[in-house]
Amino acid sequence: MKKLIALLMSMLLLVAVFVPSLAEEQIVIKLSCAASEQEKISCEQTVARFEEKYPNVKVEAEYYAGLSWDEIIQKQLVEFAAGTQADVVYIAIEGTHLMVEYDLFQPITDLIEANKDYFAEVPQSAFDAFKVGDEYYEVPFNCNDMAIAYNTEMFDEIGVKPGKWTAQEYLEALGKIDAKYNTPETPVTEKVWGTVIGETPYLWMAAFGTSVLNEDWTASNMKDPAVREVLQYLYDMVHVYGYAPVREANTDDTALFCSGRVASIFTGPFVLSSFNANNFKTWNMAIAPRGSEKGRAAYGVGGLGMMATCEHREEAFNLMKEFCSLETSMTQAREATSLPLFESAANSPEFLSHCENMNVFYDELPEAIKLPSPVCYAELNMIMKDMMNNIMTKTLTIDEAIEKADAEIAEAFAEFGY
User: Fold this and answer.
1) Structure confidence by residue, pLDDT tens digits, 228-261
2) Contact 351, 72 (CB under 8 A)
3) Strands 88-92 and 135-136, how do they pair?
């Protein structure tokens, strides 16, 4: 009996030793993430991997779609004010400066520096997109830099093989497209266009080596002569040469391209899944035409930031790392939902097989220019859309539109104390 009691006591002691670890309180990390239905599946897989690696951590994820970055930021502000904010939030470069301005994100430079080896394959430019002052505030996990998608059948018929071309050479190619598919009598509603001009001029500004803002995104750069050169180039494409239509509201560039109504469009890897959905096969990629020797591609990055109120920094950062992982990059490579950030994924057969020149995206990234994303991004975007509409509808001259945009940008920055 004594031996049995001793054995039971020993077992109880063992249970007492191990129960605390087994019954250890589970850490909960709340994740707020904008994602399409396809992206949501990938995110859920990422969360599942994370929870398998860290069984003591549970992720409570909220996924939502259909919101602009302005709306997503507003959502985070409201939840913060209500005390229901997440620990980790997906915000693209467009919202980073505003989140930092409102002290919603905490710096994570120390954690990134401690994991340099883990992030070795990720281009530094992706991290630099989330640097404000001397601190990093987000971990990148998806990216889109912009290139030209072109209809290979159309360009073969005019005898043009797009490569490292200039803005003038691109214009000449569009002239050949116009001559091949249109006549002076072709109604506007039936024309085949060379391209479509975007709602904002950021991509072409980068291609000409300039920007609508100064280098540190604290003031207007609209008076730069190169800015006017870009706007004149785009105006001429529409009104002098007739190679692009006056953009209308709700224009679907991808649908026009897949239907053969447009020969080329500016786009990032995110659109390739739409090509597949439309069973559109006759396309390839080329670098964005350069308007000057300083011209570059432009890029935007999506990342995960850690809210200032997050109490479990290490666990939250481990979740952020899982999103910026080779596994996630390989999913992006297969599905072409964005540019894979891991070099091995970007150079994998899964990614490169989408088209002959798929390598253009990753090759351009190290030298690409960040899309202007200042603290007043929402205001800037509205100003740029209004400016482009005024120019293309001939409501204002180019010089008048520049003057108006310059004053409005200054006013927008002034509201934030710049």
Assistant:
1) 999 999 999 999 999 999 999 889 999 999 999 9
2) no
3) unpaired
Model confidence pLDDT, tens digit, residues 154-172: 999 999 999 899 999 999 9
Question: What are residue 30's DSSP bridge partners?
Answer: 60
* Closest to 235 measured CA to CA, from 405, 389, 383: 389
**C-beta of residue 370 within 8 angstroms of C-beta of residue 402:** no
Q: Which amino acid is at 363?
A: D
Can you name the residues that pair with 220 across neighbouring β-strands?
A: 213
**Secondary structure (3-state) at 276:** helix
Would residue 86 be called left, alpha or beta, if left means φ above 0 and alpha means ψ between -120 and 50 degrees? beta
Q: What does the alpha-carbon distance between residue 90 and residue 307 come to, in Å, rounded to a whole number? A: 10
Tokens 């497209």 correspond to what residue?
A: 177
- Tokens 């785009």 map to which residue? 234
Q: Which residue in this structure is represented by tokens 């020797």?
A: 293
Enumerate domains of the chain plus CATH numbers: 26-144+299-370 (3.40.190.10), 147-296+376-414 (3.40.190.10)
Let me know: does 253 contact 119? Beta carbons within 8 Å: no
Question: How far is Cα of residue 58 from the mean position of the Cα atoms in its chain?
Answer: 28
Per the CB < 8 A criterion, the answer to whether 137 and 130 are in contact is yes
The token duo for 136 is 């990093």
Lowest mean pLDDT segment, chosen from 200-209, 266-275, 343-352: 266-275
What pTM, to 2 d.p., does this model score?
0.89
Q: Distance between CA 80 and CA 304 in Å, rounded?
A: 16
CB 229 within 8 A of CB 207: no
- Residue 10 pLDDT exceeds 70: no
Contact present, 72 and 34 (Cβ < 8 Å): yes
Least-confidence region, from 13-22, 38-47, 188-197: 13-22
What would you report as the CA-atom Rg of the chain, rounded to the nearest whole angstrom?
A: 25
pLDDT at 24: 58
**Tokens 């080596």 sit at which residue?**
209
Residue 195 to residue 333: CA distance in whole angstroms: 27
In angstroms, what CA-CA distances link 323 with 231, 317, 328, 343, 346? 38, 10, 6, 15, 16
